[in-house]
Please model this.
Amino acid sequence: MARYQQGYIFEAFNAFHVRYYVTEIVDGKPKRVQRSQRLCAKDNRHHSTTCKPVQQLAVQVMQKINTQTSYAQEDVLLSDFWATTYWPHLVKSKKASTLCGYEKLWSKHLEPAFVGIRLREFTCRSATLMLTALVENKNLGRRSLSHAKSLASGMFRHAKQLGLVDENPFADAQSHLKPKAPEDTPAYSLDEAETISNALIDHPQEQLIFCLSTFMGLRPGESAALKWEDISVDWIHIRRAVWRRIIGDTKTPDSVASIPLIEPLRSMFAAWRFQAGSSEWVFPNGSGQPMLMQTVVRRITQVLKAHDITWRGLYAGRRAAGSLLCQLTGNAVATQYVLRHSNLATTTAFYIKPSKGEAETGMRLLEKKLAERIKFKPAPKILAAQEVLLTEE
Model:
């Protein structure tokens, strides 16, 4: 609810005025600003700020102001609040890639659900019905629904911080229908990675970019943003990223790091440098700017199609790097460092893929270890049952 104001009466220019606050849109944001209104001239009847006639005039004016203020706050359309307030706020605080995703979410899922609805009319029930409809009518999966809810909740949180709503309706809202679980994200096996790399042997730029993802764990935008000064004999220094044609910071501060450079990538870099020209960028386009990864992926896809090899994208390579490193070291923390995740849970949940072969190897090693333990012996009944089982086989 809008706050009720009594106003402050003051005398100026031989007249009485009342001062109050209103919310106005300033630079695309609601802002509390001070305003005043003349009540009457000073005379025998209206002789001081505390006399009854002046007080009555102030009450009448403030009733009107309070009504107008309350109506103005309740009258803000959700679509208007997005356009004039929340979107400008996001533009100042988010990366271009994030803004692109937000804009798609808004136009495809949120804006149609918010048409004609005012900010203060939207309740927890409204939010629950909206989320349920996104699952039922648009078949949104769990991850997409979570993203849509997060963006909508952020918008109402901002409105609450500005004093335009009392509560965030998405705080306790959830879909009454269970969204479908996300599909498993693919990762190349070592054999698949080797096959793809060999198929790209006549395309050194594309081969190197694929191997940077698959054996070094670089994101596509990080590969595109590499400069020759970032490559040393033993290290690759990740310092920036490219999204489309925008050169900026890495995805997170933790992504800025140095990764040990290994063979055969060291040799690939040396060979590619002779062909790359004099550009400061490792992978320049015709204009001397970072190559668009979409162009590289298109070329890779064409080559692999001719060899009848399945392509699952560069991020399947990054997940392969995480899985292979964990399998070889048995250490998820090493994988976390190379992939540069701030949270180990992200590494283990999305980038380390289970392997049936590794599971079998691990269980055989455990079996061998248990057999070596003198004190670890099965109960006699179990030994007898085992002998019967072996005899039957």
Notes: The radius of gyration is 32 Å. The chain has a mean pLDDT of 83. Strands lie at 8-12, 15-26, 29-41, 235-238, 241-243, 246-248, 257-260.
